[in-house]
Amino acid sequence: MPTKWIPLELLLAQKSEDGINIISRAELMILNSKNDSMVLSEKQIETFLKVQHSLGKLLYFDVENLRDFIIISPAYLVDVLKSIVTEKQFWPTGERFSNILKNLQDSGMIELNDIHYLWEQDTFNHILLHKDYMIQILVHLDVIIAPRTSLQDDHSSLQDVSFFLVPCMITKPNDTMFLKRFWQSKNSIILAYTFHEEVIPPALSYRFLSSFITSWDIKNYKERGIEKRMLFSDLAVVNIDNYHDVAVQVKTNRLIVSLIHAKTKEDIIPTLASSLQECLTAAIVRISEFYSTLSEDINSADDNSDIPFNIEFGVFCNSDICFVNHKEMPLSTDDSVWVCKKHKQRHATKGLTTWFSEKEPIDECTSSCKCTYEYDCRRLGRLEREQCPLPQHIRRLASLLSPDECRETSILLGFQLQEWKDLEYQFLHQHSNDIKFMALWSCIVKSGNISFDILRDVLENKGISSHLLCQVFRDVTIDALDMAEETLNKIPSVDTLLDLSNHIGNSTMQLAIELEVDLSYIQQIQHDHKNKLLEQTRKILMKWRQNKFPKPTILRLLKALYRVGKFGPTYQIIKNHL
Predict the structure, then answer these.
(1) How far apart are CA 315 and CA 347, in angstroms?
(2) Quick check: 127 and 83 in contact, CB under 8 A?
(3) Is 305 exposed, middle or buried (0-12, 13-18, 19+ CB in 10 A)?
(4) Distance between CA 438 and CA 445 in Å, rounded?
(5) pTM given for the model
(6) DSSP assignment letter at 88
(7) What are phi and psi of 46, to 5 degrees?
(8) CB distance 206 to 142 below 8 Å
(9) Distance CA 115, CA 101 (A)
(10) d(C-alpha 286, C-alpha 307), whole Å
(11) Cβ contacts of residue 68 below 8 Å, gap of 6+?
(12) Which terminal CB of the chain, N or C, has fewer other CB atoms within 10 Å?
């Protein structure tokens, strides 16, 4: 630990002993300025806070709306948590307190003014001084959830939210006939995250559930004239669109996800299923990373210890649901089947592998390609040839290289092997094209003078065809004959983009680069919403829609979707909103 840290650490410890639990960033800088020769720079302060947070000496969250305050007494957060999340036997007495508890147990709902009322108790009234900040902390930790409908507008904030959901406080089980009526083999496909441990840690399942219900609207289901919100202690159902619902159940060591179509599973849109799987898998992997480090066998774990679960397909078998590891499922063809070992039943695999639908391939050059990378043909002068590639050029090139080719090319461009390994760790659970792009783009940024000429020479040195560069420059032709030019030049509506976001999955970064969204904004959104892939996509699309130049047209969007292999069904979605 740097000796320059010691004075500031001692000052914070003294503040904590004096009963101060939270200080602002401005107050921290004032304390820092008192240390004469040991004053820390802004960058050193940031490192100090992150290391102290990792050691549990303070709590600092480097995300939007939270980085302006620091909790210097970590035990203080325990008081905040138990003010809302606690057993019935410890709940305060009184009519209003009883009504708050009943609402929490039945529906998980709590009004903002009821949270403030809980904090007015003598035991918790010290929280009121920083009540807005603590609400933000509880939302960030997924303890309480701001309903998604309250935050559809990208400019809205928690100040506009009047009530929250607290899933871990719900004790009421599912009392509807929804599953019996709609959860059937003819219209549902099932995916399960089966954990290696016998029981899923409750905190993990609740955080996953929070990520799930903040991504889509909770379904309202009418039964016997009574409309019910489909959020229970053993079931949560969200509505994606007019035809698709998603149900999540927790059973022993399984998180079971069911995609339910209003008519038949053959009508389930493949990009919707695969994007849903990618979003939920990204969320559960990120959440699991913390809990997997608590395993007693962490030192003896195998290489897959960071993934404490298997992904399985579920099938309706007799009166039961049987599961099979998705890697053991036969390749899906029209007549391929899987035989259940338990019941000896034969099941068609068609439809199950929709969860892992392949992205559409983009056009590739062939040996007869006439668009060889020739500058005269492309009318590129010397000035253009000596320019640095743009992010979208590097993204396209990276997507055409294998990971090994990309690593070797990056090293030839000045990247260090350790830097590549660092990126592998950072992008461990992201799209493989993300790490390849970041490696190549880091070389471009670090060097500052890598031109298209240099790129061509490096590729040829590795024996890689220069036809790849021809694909980088090639424009794409969109088959949109049923859309007028005037329509293609319109800006897509907010509803269009929100609907479209359900079909992007883990291609968010790739799409954002093609849409020319600022890279620093992309990285900030990934940092602030690392557990919520769908939220990243929504914010990226809304940010792009605000662009003044180039104009965010439907045509630009379609071309970007085509380049990242998401054109097919998304074209129809965009068309439906016109």
Answers:
(1) 8
(2) yes
(3) middle
(4) 10
(5) 0.80
(6) G
(7) -60, -45
(8) yes
(9) 11
(10) 10
(11) 24, 25
(12) N
